[in-house]
Amino acid sequence: MFEFPETINLPLASVIDSIMDWLLLHLDGLFDFIGAIILHVVLALESLLLFVPWFIIILLIGLAGWKLLGKISTAIVFMTMMFIIGAFDYWDLAMRTLSLVIASVVFSLLIGLPTGIKMARSDRAQRILKPLLDAMQTMPSFVYLIPALMFFGMGKVPAMFATIIYAVPPVIRLTNVGIRTVDIEALEAAKAFGATPKQILFDVQLPLAKPSIMVGINQTTMMALAMVVIGSMIGAKGLGMEVLLAISRIEVGRGFEAGISIVFLAIIIDRITYSFSKKDK
């Protein structure tokens, strides 16, 4: 009497499995094409970061900290963090992780910015996309690894695919919020001077929404870094793989070094990307 009736059963799992089987059967070529593009972008970034000498990258990060945040002390801290990562013998792994993060953010922005703009300009699109974004943000991150593995197998590509899905909602949401909260008087003034909808978008709404959009990019970048670590479980080499190996072998010191390296990267990326939201328009 107090147990849920066994006769009531929603076969959602079997429906989703059927959809996945259909996609794999009919869109296999499309997924191969998408995977090839993602892989080429990741490998190009990885090759570039590994080709540039370590001290040049440290100097560039220090310069970015100084110019964007306006403090020499911040630049010194950033450079020290990167030097410590190298001293842990994790430089190559850190560059591989950074390449995955950068590529994930690029693809997330290519998807997220136009979607956020469409969401801001259409109440119907907002009503449709809001529940979807809610589901994407509350779904456990490990769940995204399942379809990624089915579509692309093991390696960098499925990790990137899962990362993009996981990281894209913040930039969509905050682009939508930023554009919708633009001062109505600025829009009315632009319309009074005969501006077209395209001119209003690019010359009024996007510039005024820039702080909100940049916060969205910051959040997307941080979520991408978090997911790239989880992506190591399906073959994405990087600092996340070191954490995974340390857990499996119960090597506390190794895990601590890899974890600290990830934290240092997160701090640097967070401060640099967040600084753009504070810049003068």
Envelope shape: globular
**Total of domains:** 1
Radius of gyration: 22 Å
Strand-and-helix sequence, N→C? Answer: HHHHHHHHHHHHH
Task: Describe the main β-sheet briefly.
Answer: none
Q: Summarize the amount of helix as a percent range.
A: over 70%
Mean pLDDT: 87
**CATH homology superfamily name:** MetI-like
Q: List unreliable stretches of 5+ residues.
A: none
**N- to C-terminal distance:** 64 Å
Which structural category fits the helices and strands?
mainly alpha
| CATH architecture group name | Orthogonal Bundle
Assigned CATH class? Mainly Alpha
Strand content: under 5%
Summarize the structure.
This protein is an all-alpha fold and 281 residues long.
Question: Can you describe what's shown?
Answer:
By secondary structure, this protein is mainly α. The chain has a single domain (14-51, 88-276), classed as MetI-like (MetI-like fold, Orthogonal Bundle). The protein is 82% helix and 0% strand. It has 13 helices and no strands. The model has no long low-confidence stretch (mean pLDDT 87).
Keywords:
globular, 13 helices, 281 residues, mainly alpha, single chain, MetI-like fold
Topology:
Elements: H1 12-26, H2 28-51, H3 54-69, H4 72-87, H5 91-121, H6 123-138, H7 145-152, H8 156-180, H9 184-192, H10 197-208, H11 210-231, H12 239-249, H13 252-276
